[in-house]
Amino acid sequence: MKKYLTIISLLFYPIFFTSCKKDFLDVAPGSQLSSATFWRNADDANKAATGVYSAWANGHAYQIYFADDWSDDAIPTGFWHFFYYYSWGIGGLSPQDANINDYWSALYSVIRSTNVFLTNVGKCKMDEDLRNRLIGEVKFIRAYEYFLLYNFWGEVPLVSQPLNISELKVARAQPGETESFILQDLNDAISYLPVTPPEAGRITKGAALSLKARILLYEGKYGDAADAAKAVMDLNVYKLLRTPAGDGYYQLSNTRQGNNQEEILGWQNDGVNRNNDQVQYMNCLTNTLVSPTKALVDSYDGYDKTIDQIVAVDESTDISRFQNRDPRLNFTIGHTGSVVNGQTLNSNEAPLSNESTGYGVVKFITDEVKANAPHFTTDNILIRYAEVLLTYAEAKIESGQIDQSVLDAINDVRSRAYGTTVDDIAHYPEVTSTDQATLRKIVRNERRVELAFEGLRWFDLKRWRIAAGTGGTMNGPVSGAFLSPGNYINAGSRALSDKDYLRPIPQAQVDLESSGVLTQNPGY
Q1: Distance between CA atoms of 299 and 297, rounded to whole angstroms?
Q2: What residue numbers bound the domain in which 313 lies?
Q3: Is 232 within a domain?
Q4: pLDDT at 46
Q5: What are the tens digits of pLDDT across the range 46-73?
Q6: Is residue 326 part of a domain?
Q7: How far is CA 359 from CA 16, 84, 124, 287, 293, in A?
Q8: DSSP characters for 314-327?
Q9: Which pLDDT score is estimated for 22?
Q10: 354-387 burial, b for 16+ CB within 10 Å, e for fewer?
Q11: 3-state helix, strand, coil in the chain (%, to 5)
């Protein structure tokens, strides 16, 4: 069932879900299905679950691939400076921003679809094991949406039923309640979901455990995060994608390697035309929304394989800057000297000269270098095993439980990046230190370069509290490609303060719920 997450039933979808453009709890007339005509059997339940998947995947896929514009790794390109990817990343948001309201509404629209399902699926005459599996899948999706809401806005209104217009006044949750709600959904999902999916693209126990580990890590509950990540590892169904040619990292993102042993969860894609899906812009170097920064380029280690040592980067020319570097740099960022599908790139020439920084994202390019490439042939990966390994390592480091398993987890990821195995220590920069401060720095940077442009960087900056204020990674000028020694493209500037760790509650939602019900975040 390769297209499971991308097919929408044209008969079912319009009546089952409200538009993502509506205010978040608004119920359009006719949006509720009659139990007399639906919710009869397993076929209805499966159709309903498919609708939830479709609303989830098609509602906001951009949050993954463009979210790094909200971080120190990238800045939007050209025209997109006027769009909210830019304002979100420079601390220029206000409660009146319509785009903020649209994003809030899109998330709650998906949540409403999950609530409709969970409220009604008990009416279906069907096998209980199937019912519970579908409940587990839908509870995972609801948890995922609340995870995003919580990380952007903090405590938010918790809605577990499809509400009517008369029931709109829902206050924000009390401290800790949103996290507890998310974890309860995930624990339910873990108890219901199978280890092996019945069809490609279905949510599994491993996905629910992985998201639980991510959330616990973000909340600083390191012991529990390590336990959840270890539970994924102990399933013994996932491992990093390695190839005989040593280009597993490239193959994961740039070719049709969907449903491989590293992908824990992804939105399936068969290379069909994805109309109205902004993800298509990531399959080219022109008109993209994402321009990598010099700061991201600088985070990739210099490494001399002839002496098996990390070395200083030669900053004398635009070519020398990219020699003897972590291989993930060339697999991720287009720069002067890059060869992509037979085309040699230059930061001073199109298509890279169209980018804000003179750098482009090549991590997801498949067949051609052109604008609006119509086919996106890789899965949109949401969770993969490399993240689980790094979550485990970081959680153990922060817990002060540093042992060989921590080094093994980091070295598993790092050795794959260099096209070799963990045991081949002469051909990659093996991590051997057991010093907590040293390992903290290493694992944080490893997350940055391994997971670049996979939508997680902002969340890392937020939980580490290193983005805003004096010395913050998102304060000051944004530099790009090399111009001359010590001189780089100026792509703008940013100025984030502590209030920017949370987004403003959309004023449209505050007004919708009447004065005093939905309170605003501090500083807005």
Answers
A1: 5
A2: 278-377
A3: no
A4: 97
A5: 999 999 998 898 756 556 667 888 899 9
A6: yes
A7: 42, 21, 53, 13, 7
A8: --SSTTGGGSSB-T
A9: 36
A10: bbbbbbbbbbbbbbebbeebeebbbbbbbbbbbb
A11: 45, 10, 45
Could you list the mean pLDDT of each consecutive 10-residue stretch along the chain, which spans 524 residues?
32 31 33 67 96 82 74 79 64 86 91 96 97 98 96 96 74 96 98 94 96 98 98 97 93 72 80 42 61 97 95 94 96 92 88 90 68 50 95 98 98 97 97 98 98 94 95 94 95 91 93 82 94
Six token digits for residue 434: 């057991």
Q: Are 51 and 8 in contact (CB under 8 A)?
A: yes
Number of domains in the chain: 1
Q: Would you state the structure tokens that stand for residue 394, as one six-digit string?
A: 């970081």
Q: What is the pLDDT of residue 342?
A: 80
Q: Find the radius of gyration of the CA atoms of the chain.
A: 23
Q: Is residue 306 part of a domain?
A: yes
How many Cβ atoms sit within 10 Å of the Cβ of residue 89? Answer: 26
Max CA-CA distance within the chain? 73
> Is position 345 within any domain?
yes
SS3 513: coil
236: tokens are: 């013994």
Sign of the four-CA dihedral 455, 459, 461, 464: negative
DSSP 478: E
Half-sphere exposure of 511 (CA within 13 A, CB side): 7
Going by C-alpha positions, the residue among 92, 78, 123, 100 that lies closest to residue 24 is 100
Cis amide bond preceding 351, omega within 30 = yes
Q: Give the rounded distance of the alpha carbon of 145 from its chain centre.
A: 12
DSSP helix/strand/coil, 493: strand
Contact 391, 379 (CB under 8 A): no
DSSP state of 172: P
Contact in structure between 121 and 45 (CB atoms under 8 Å): yes
